[in-house]
């Protein structure tokens, strides 16, 4: 047993353990970042290649092992070239997240988001400034974020109001909020074709309901004609909300007392799903 441990960890077991922990941390961060992007499928493919390389080397399949080795060697260069924008964004997000952890205040980010949304919606409602704001939940909204203008900015009520000022470049379309940041503005959302929607509701409401039919996002609407505030969650529409009702609905759908703890649990679940999804998909795709 001691000899096996010496062979595995070497003469400096603490350094070897630290080395393994660092590698696992890097893999963990890659999975966390990729869970909402097309890079997740790429990581699964890389994992399969590494597993195949390990088994081919263990069994002694020299030709396959050599081919996989060449694929891995040149594949790293190809991935850097093909995914250069994603890699740059990942590094930016990593630096930003580390900075947030060291400088963040004790205030719950959900509470700050609710305050900014409430302030901006009430301001625009009073002045009949049309607005459409979607907040990403579990289902990723990258498909719709890509249709707009990328902002990746902090959320403030002033910025939200300025975006929807009439005749400005970004006022037409939806603002999408992801991970407590404004991901993009002037985004296109899918229009609902439901015949149950009242005829007096316009394109903004149809877009909000359309997004609610295909995702679990929360969408906020300010009517340009009446100034009425509405909220769509899934395919349910809450219309003509006053200040108290608006605050109550925002708290119901957005407030999270344990935001950081829930995020860590979700990240752990994503790692579990990453290693099991290939096995599950093999059995599940047969019925499609």
TrEMBL record:
E.C. no: 2.7.7.85
User: PROSITE patterns under this entry?
Assistant: DAC
Query: DAC domain: which residues?
Result: 84-243
- EC category name: transferase
Q: Which UniProt key words apply to this protein? A: ATP-binding, Cell membrane, Membrane, Nucleotide-binding, Nucleotidyltransferase, Transferase, Transmembrane, Transmembrane helix
Q: Keyword Transcription, does the record have it?
A: no
Q: Where are the transmembrane segments?
A: 14-34, 41-60, 66-83
Q: Which reaction does it catalyse?
A: 2 ATP = 3',3'-c-di-AMP + 2 diphosphate
Concerning PANTHER family, the annotation shows:
DIADENYLATE CYCLASE
The subunit field of the Swiss-Prot or TrEMBL record says:
Probably a homodimer.
Per the similarity annotation, which family is this?
Belongs to the adenylate cyclase family. DacA/CdaA subfamily.
Q: What is this protein called?
A: Diadenylate cyclase
The protein's organism comes out as: Facklamia lactis
Q: What is the lineage of its organism?
A: Bacteria, Bacillati, Bacillota, Bacilli, Lactobacillales
UniProt lists the gene as dacA
